[in-house]
Amino acid sequence: GRLSRAVAVRVSIADIFTHPTVGELAALIEDRLSTTAVSS
């Protein structure tokens, strides 16, 4: 949805329930962005 388009990272509903705070979601997104950058 919007979040995935905004940050170019896929965030599932399960991720939102597993990481319910903005800070936790931000950390998840940063981790996925750094993983994506390394694997590219």
UniProtKB/TrEMBL annotation:
<feature type="domain" description="Carrier">
    <location>
        <begin position="1"/>
        <end position="33"/>
    </location>
</feature>
<dbReference type="Pfam" id="PF00550">
    <property type="entry name" value="PP-binding"/>
</dbReference>
<dbReference type="InterPro" id="IPR009081">
    <property type="entry name" value="PP-bd_ACP"/>
</dbReference>
<dbReference type="InterPro" id="IPR036736">
    <property type="entry name" value="ACP-like_sf"/>
</dbReference>
<protein>
    <recommendedName>
        <fullName>Carrier domain-containing protein</fullName>
    </recommendedName>
</protein>
